Amino acid sequence: MDGKKYDISKIFGQIMHTKTLVIILIVGIGLLVLSGSFGGGQETVQEQPETQTDSAAYCKELEDRLCAILGSVSGVGEVEVMVTLADNGQDVLAYDEKYQAKAAGSQTGSDETPQDKQTDTKVVLKSGQGGSETPVTVKQLTPQVAGVLVVADGGANPAVKTDVINAVHAVLPVKLNKICVVGREQ
User: Which one, of 149, 147, 158, lies nearest residue 180 by Cα?
Assistant: First the structure.
């Protein structure tokens, strides 16, 4: 064989060493995967920073921002804004829904009747400090704006009034008939 001698025990030792390393690597990866799956039964829910759910603070923020931007509109002058809200916003909660349908249909020929279906709906809860449970919020809906009142120095001018109404309508989801612009008493 070409003058080269192969030491079979050396080659066999290298193969066994490689197989051992591969097996140890596979076992290590398996343990990492399993440790992530069985983490003591604790749910990992990241606490989100509190969003501004206080409707009074939300309303005040809208009024301040509108005053700042409307005050820079030509002809408006000094301005005051009052925003009214239709509600306090809404939290959309996470639900766990399970559906079950019975296999047997009715004897009248129709496939399913409303009684053949069952729905089990539960609010998803997370454990807090002290063993308290709170519902999981998927998203928070901001309060709906019911109307806007703008009192401005130039509010009696029809052109300024139109500009202010269009500006408010552009930044808030409110109908035109729910925006009132009036002139300031001199």
Answer: 149
- What is the count of structural domains for the chain? 3
Q: What's the start-to-end Cα distance of the chain, in Å?
A: 114
Residue range 23-34, pLDDT digits in tens: 777 877 877 777
Whether residues 79 and 153 fall in one domain: yes
Q: State pTM to two decimals.
A: 0.54
The overall longest dimension of the chain from CA atoms, in Å, is 114
**Can you point out the beta strands (E) in the chain?**
79-85, 90-93, 95-101, 117-123, 125-127, 133-135, 137-141, 145-152, 179-183
Is there a single domain that holds both residue 9 and residue 33?
A: yes
Residue 105 lies in a domain: no
Residue 125 is part of which domain span? 94-100+118-140
Task: Return d(Cα 30, Cα 116) in angstroms, integer.
Answer: 43
Contacts of 85 (CB under 8 A, 6+ apart): 55, 58, 59, 143, 144, 145, 146
15 and 83 inside one domain: no
Please tell me whether residue 106 adopts helix, strand or coil conformation.
coil
